[in-house]
């Protein structure tokens, strides 16, 4: 991990699964070259925009499913990327909730698909396109399964800002890209089969509260700690210099400006928290669109 290009697929279990991916990438030493296919609307959020700059994320439009050239150009830009990178793709298309699971179960029953219990039905068009354009230079797929132990509270953005921890179990399986089938329809079926296996794996976790696999200690890189501490010190010193230079706390005008700025930041953070909640995510259409090249969306 961290020494090879990889396409990363993961179930979307919690509000902050993206953070689990960040931690794995950071522990593997390749956070700076980690990319994610995300909704275009995510770019308008200030914190996400900052994260995009800080972690060098690549944002592709959600509408690339009907714009093949946009997707192809975005993926081909990675062909000559000088460092090992990860490209993350949540193929379920939305975050897991009980209501969405019921809709997925109803759809699966109506068309004769395996009825899911712990995951949603994957939307395979993006995965098929990624494999098609990247199999020549990306050697592996990391199949990640995220589970929350029964004894741990559900991780959320609000708990994160409050400094409250949660335990997350992560199971990672490495597939060789060369072992995937050649046709688009077969690749789509491979993805669906992977999520059927993921569903069974989560059944086992629910029963045993563990994946019962060999644990690997990834450690905590000192470099990341130094970077975060240095950034925090610079921000604090910069804030103090601004306060001193403009005497923001010595006059009523300065106090008012500071209070307004703090209020704006608070509102933006509330927007981010609300936006990150699973219940507010946009559910995908459960029915397939018109097949194209033998692949359902």
UniProtKB/TrEMBL annotation:
One of its GO terms (cellular component) is endomembrane system. Keywords: Acyltransferase, Membrane, Transferase, Transmembrane, Transmembrane helix. GO terms for biological process: CDP-diacylglycerol biosynthetic process. Pathway: Phospholipid metabolism; CDP-diacylglycerol biosynthesis; CDP-diacylglycerol from sn-glycerol 3-phosphate: step 2/3; Lipid metabolism. The chain crosses the membrane at residues 225-243, 249-273. Pfam families: Acyltransf_C (PF16076), Acyltransferase (PF01553). It is an enzyme of class 2 (transferase). Its EC number is 2.3.1.51. Residues 6-128 form the Phospholipid/glycerol acyltransferase domain. It catalyses: a 1-acyl-sn-glycero-3-phosphate + an acyl-CoA = a 1,2-diacyl-sn-glycero-3-phosphate + CoA. PANTHER family: 1-ACYLGLYCEROL-3-PHOSPHATE ACYLTRANSFERASE-RELATED (PTHR10983), 1-ACYLGLYCEROL-3-PHOSPHATE O-ACYLTRANSFERASE 3, ISOFORM E-RELATED (PTHR10983:SF24). Belongs to the 1-acyl-sn-glycerol-3-phosphate acyltransferase family. This is 1-acylglycerol-3-phosphate O-acyltransferase. It comes from Erythranthe guttata (Yellow monkey flower). The lineage of its organism: Eukaryota, Viridiplantae, Streptophyta, Embryophyta, Tracheophyta.
């Amino acid at each position: 991990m961290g020494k090879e290009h990889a396409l990363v697929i993961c179930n979307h279990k919690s509000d902050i699964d993206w953070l689990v991916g960040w931690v794995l990438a950071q522990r593997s030493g390749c956070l700076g070259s980690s990319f994610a296919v995300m909704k275009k609307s995510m770019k308008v959020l200030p914190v996400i925009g900052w994260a995009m700059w800080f972690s060098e994320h690549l944002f592709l439009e959600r509408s690339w499913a009907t714009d093949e050239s946009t997707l192809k150009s975005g993926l081909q830009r990675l062909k000559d990327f000088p460092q090992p990178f990860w490209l993350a793709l949540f193929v379920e298309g939305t975050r897991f909730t009980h209501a969405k699971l019921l809709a997925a179960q109803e759809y699966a029953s109506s068309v004769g698909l395996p009825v899911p219990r712990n995951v949603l039905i994957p939307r395979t068009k993006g995965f098929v396109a990624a494999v098609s354009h990247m199999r020549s230079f990306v050697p592996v797929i990391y199949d990640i399964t995220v589970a929350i132990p029964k004894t741990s509270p559900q991780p959320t953005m609000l708990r994160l800002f409050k400094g409250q921890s949660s335990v997350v179990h992560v199971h990672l399986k490495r597939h060789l890209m060369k072992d995937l089938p050649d046709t688009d329809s077969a690749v789509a079926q491979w993805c669906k089969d992977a999520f059927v296996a993921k569903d069974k794996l989560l059944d086992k976790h629910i029963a045993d509260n563990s994946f019962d696999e060999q644990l690997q200690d990834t450690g905590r890189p000192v470099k990341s700690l130094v970077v975060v501490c240095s950034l925090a010190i610079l921000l604090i010193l910069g804030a103090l210099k601004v306060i001193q230079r403009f005497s923001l706390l010595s006059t009523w005008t300065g106090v008012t400006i500071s209070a307004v700025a703090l209020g704006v930041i608070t509102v933006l953070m509330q927007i981010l928290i609300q936006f990150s909640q699973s219940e507010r995510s946009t559910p995908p259409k459960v029915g397939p669109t018109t097949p194209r090249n033998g692949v359902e969306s």
